[in-house]
Amino acid sequence: MAVLEETIDIAVIGAGHAGCEAALAAARMGLETVVFTVSVDSIAMMPCNPNIGGTSKGHLVKEIDALGGEMGKNIDKTFIQSKMLNKSKGPAVHSLRAQADKRAYSQSMREVLENTDHLTIRQMEIAELIVEDGVLTGVKAVSGAIYHCKAAVLCTGVYLNARCIYGDVSTYTGPNGLQAATHLTDSLKANGVELAEYDDVLTILAAQTEEQTVLADPASVNYAVYQTLQANPALTVKDEADPLLPMKGVKNEVELAHTREAHIRDGVAMVRFQIELENRLAAGEELTELTIDEILHKYRSAQDKFLTESFGTIAAYGPNAAMMHYHATEEDHAKLEKKGFLLVDSGATYMDGTTDITRTYPLGELTEDERLFYTWTLQCHIDIARAVWLDYCDGHMLDTIAREPLWRHLINYRCGTGHSVSFVGNVHEGPHALNGRNTTVFQPGMIVTDEPGVYEAGQVGIRIENELECYHKADNQYGTFLAFRPLTFVPIATSPVVPGVLNRDELDWLNAYHREVFEKLAPRLNEEERDWLAKKCAAIGA
User: Fold this and answer.
1) CA separation for the pair 453, 187 (Å, rounded)
2) Three-state SS for 165?
3) Residue 78 lies in a domain
4) Residues 6+ apart with CB under 8 A from 88
5) pLDDT, tens digit, for every residue of 69-121?
6) For residue range 236-289, what is the model confidence (pLDDT) as tens digits?
7) N or C, which end of the chain is more exposed by having fewer CB within 10 Å?
């Protein structure tokens, strides 16, 4: 009897979440790929938990998304509801979870697979790995069909030799009563593949005798694992950064387009916040630092695709703002007065982007020092925003551009100038940043904050922050030049600016920025709001 025999590049065994992503990744690289599943009706099936993301797996979804995976796109098309978990805790443990219409999710993913070039779906169980001289050369199905391949990716999940046990009864079956893969386990064992309990990882690492090189990111690897690796003389440990971070740090055009839109909506919320703040102060209402978060949340939560605040709002009045990460509490907060500065550092996570913005608002009479500190901070902000550099420059090189206006006055701020921002859900991500230690070379598509400041203990704190997008500016005989353009579009207070301090180029940048703020936000505001915005965006220094 004739046996089906084909030659392909990649065999992917299993068509759950992992199998779908593996098959798509291989096919999109131009490799002839076959994904094998015991049932085409179970492709990307969610038998018990119809959710994507969440506390335990949200980071994996983000990693897959950074690599160009389909999971994030598919849940966007088929979700019923989404929720940010752990909101009662700090932002470090916030995790986005989306509940799917599981039938729609499965069908949608199947359609993507069926319409991807170089990808074929086969409904059959793989029973054997074909190995010659220790090298995999193909896979064999229960039916006897042979697929010669360069590599096989095992994504069998819980179906591999799966059993359902109740009482004294043990049945070989997978979730939802689907067929278990009962043959492949023997083939794996025959080829020296061993399975172990998760808790045995330290013992296994310690027992390695083959000389190998292991990459370990000191910033993220479990310390016990790191110690075990270091203690094994057979292992050469390389302390290097996670290679996925650079991929996440450079946003693609789809991510950038969504992020720009999220910032425009956030700008509308910020305008409405400031209008209400000014009106309530003018009416003589007693407001505190705690009031700020309430107003901000009201307007941000009304915006389309709002999920949650991207971090706890910092609203600091007067000397409190000199503490860079100050947080008002019910027990300890300041009342706002019609003098001095109010610093507000806040942001939001939307389904299509993450925002982080700081504005320092004059509430009334200012001292000459306060005005000078504000103007110098604005100089720093503008100088990095309008910077142009060759593409070999890294974060610590660019950081000096921002500090120079303050250094001239023998002032410095004891923090970085800016940090990277994720697409959705992580306002501090990496790998790039603007500080004196960061050596990551900037690339087009990177997003970074621009937030220099002056922090005089017991007196005043000032910070002005926008998010910036790095882009390709030009190529010529000298090389490739890069530059920044703003993602944040919210008026920057100009009334505290001391005349004659900003040079012509800095004034031109500020006025051009405010023209763009008005152009982007005005169509989304009512007439009264537009009139207010026009005044805030009026040119200065003409």
Assistant:
1) 63
2) strand
3) no
4) none
5) 899 889 888 988 888 888 777 776 778 888 888 899 999 999 999 999 999 99
6) 999 988 888 888 899 999 899 999 999 999 999 999 999 999 999 999 999 999
7) N
8 Å CB contact between 94 and 84: yes
User: How much is the CA Rg of the chain, to the nearest whole Å?
Assistant: 28
For the chain, percent helix, then strand, then coil, each to nearest 5? 35, 25, 35
270, 160: one domain: no
The encoded tokens of residue 350 equal 């939307």
Q: Alpha-carbon distance 359 to 124, whole Å?
A: 60
Question: 525: domain CATH number?
Answer: 3.90.230.10
Distances (CA, A) of 341 to 276, 279, 334, 371, 531: 17, 16, 12, 10, 24
Cα end-to-end distance, the chain, whole Å: 89
Whether 353 and 441 share a structural domain:
yes
- Domain-located, residue 155: yes
Cα dihedral 48, 53, 59, 62, rounded to 10, equals: 120
CB of 97 closer than 8 Å to CB of 79: no
In whole angstroms, what is the distance from residue 532 CA to residue 504 CA? 26
Q: Report the C-alpha gap between 276 and 177 in whole angstroms.
A: 58
> What range does the domain containing 9 cover?
5-50+101-190
Structure tokens at 38: 């015991």
315 by Cβ neighbours in 10 Å (0-12 / 13-18 / 19+) ranks as buried
Rounded distance between C-alpha atoms, residue 355 and residue 310, angstroms: 7
Domain count of the fold of the chain? 3
Residue at 279: amino acid letter: N
What gap in Å lies between CA 265 and CA 67, rounded to an integer? 27
**Axis crossing angle, helix 504-521 with helix 368-385, rounded to the nearest 10:** 80
Contact 10, 31 (CB under 8 A): yes
Residue 73 identity: K
Are residues 236 and 376 part of one domain? no
